[in-house]
Amino acid sequence: MTRFKAFGPLVCAGAVLLAGAAVAGLSGAEAAKARMEHMKGLGAATKAVFEQVKTGAPDMAVVKLNAAKIDAAAKALPTWFPAGSGQSAEPKSHALPVIWTDKTGFDTKAKALAAAAPKLLAAANGTDPAAVGPAFKEVGASCKGCHETFKAKDKD
Amino acid sequence: MSPTPDAASPQAKLWDLGVRLFHWPLVVLIPFSWWSAKADHLDWHRLSGYVILGLVIFRLFWGLVGSPTARFAQFLKGPGAVMAYLRGAAAAGPGHNPLGGWSVAALLTVLAAQLGLGLFAVDEDSIEAGPLSHFVSFDTGRAIAHLHHKLFWVLAGLIALHLAAIVVYRLRGKNLVTPMITGAAPAEPGVQVPALAPVLRLIPVAAVAAGLAWFVAHGLKI
Predict the structure, then answer these.
(1) Across B95-115, average pLDDT
(2) Does residue A67 lie in a domain region?
């Protein structure tokens, strides 16, 4: 009745949250775990490219393969952070609450990777191996740029 | 309380230049390595680590060919001697007593292990990584980095014990710091200190150690 004024909005909010989780298909903790696996994959791909850059004579096949992985991850990344998939759902997650309280700031960082990754892919598919290094540098900078603010530091 | 009048009593040359030149840079480099990692200056951290690597490689060789008091064979005693010392027997021979000898071994071992882990460690973005990290996967490199972080606290604990021991000795009238700087310590009655190795022997040993550290720092490539 009119006594339970908050009831309506609460039910709506609950429905929205459930819908969000249903769209993601995973619980908060599951989404967090999946994200951590995705990030590991991203780390392995950047490691592979960087090691090629460091040799001075990159193996372009390795670079192409991993640049494609980075590009695919960059496109999917914004979907890895559904509401409720932070540290309260999964204590092992390094995703800081500010990701959801400063959506604008976080989106800017995600966009930086989304802009850098295709350039790396283009360089990987190009004819000049020397172009890979600078393109990778931009990708690396975007990783660091987001982690600085939005990822928890290791406790040790 | 009977402090040894260091200036008055005859001095013996106890610690050679090798052990002293190895020891004192670590007092700066180990805290610097810790700080540079904390402050996210991993390029400085690697450089500091490479210098420590060279020093440790040097010390391991010097422990085989240096002055008698520098040699592992001279100061690492068996359990019998350690137990006897703990029960109050006088330490036989110059240099480290049995307990001190094994504390050196513990510090060197943990320091070497920390260096070994650092060589293969991968930071979270995979961009900052040890020079041998291309031999391991991202996951392994990350696990090694976590171990490298944790092992630092074991090293710090051993260093704290080391410092505490020096303070305790000082309170009991034995100054261990000055001999480690000058190399000379009050001669103990009846204890014969063997002659130190020629100073020139340092040069080839240091050169080999520096060369090996450089080689490792470059990922085992010339």
Answers:
(1) 96
(2) yes
Residues of A in contact with B43 (CB under 8 A): none
Number of domains chain A is built from: 1
3-class secondary structure, B33: helix
Are A156 and B126 within 8 A, CB to CB? no
Q: Are A93 and A35 in contact (CB under 8 A)?
A: yes
Which structural domain, as residue segments, surrounds residue A65?
27-150
What does the mean pLDDT of chain B come to? 93
List, for residues B16-67, the tens digit of each pLDDT value: 999 999 999 999 999 999 999 999 999 999 999 999 999 999 999 999 999 9
Query: For A51, which of B134, B150, B152 is closest by C-beta distance?
Result: B134
Closest CA to B54 of B73, B37, B74, B29: B29
CB atoms A44 and B134 under 8 Å: no
User: Which residues is A95 bridged to in the sheet?
Assistant: A151
Tokens encoding A147: 């982690």
Whole-complex ipTM: 0.83
CA distance A136 to B33: 28
Contacts of B146 in chain A (CB under 8 A): 154, 156
The answer to whether position A128 is within a domain reads yes
In which residue are the tokens 């980095």 written? B145
Instruction: Please name each of the domains of chain B with its CATH number.
Output: 13-187+200-217 (1.20.950)
With beta carbons under 8 A apart, name residues in chain B contacting A154.
124, 146, 149
pTM, two decimal places? 0.88
Q: What does the alpha-carbon distance between residue A43 and residue B186 come to, in Å, rounded to a whole number?
A: 58
The distance of B122 to chain A (nearest Cα, Å) reads: 9
A83 is a domain residue: yes
In a domain, A14, yes or no: no
The whole-angstrom separation of Cα A132 and Cα A111 is 20
- Read off the CATH number of the domain in which A133 is found: 1.20.120.10
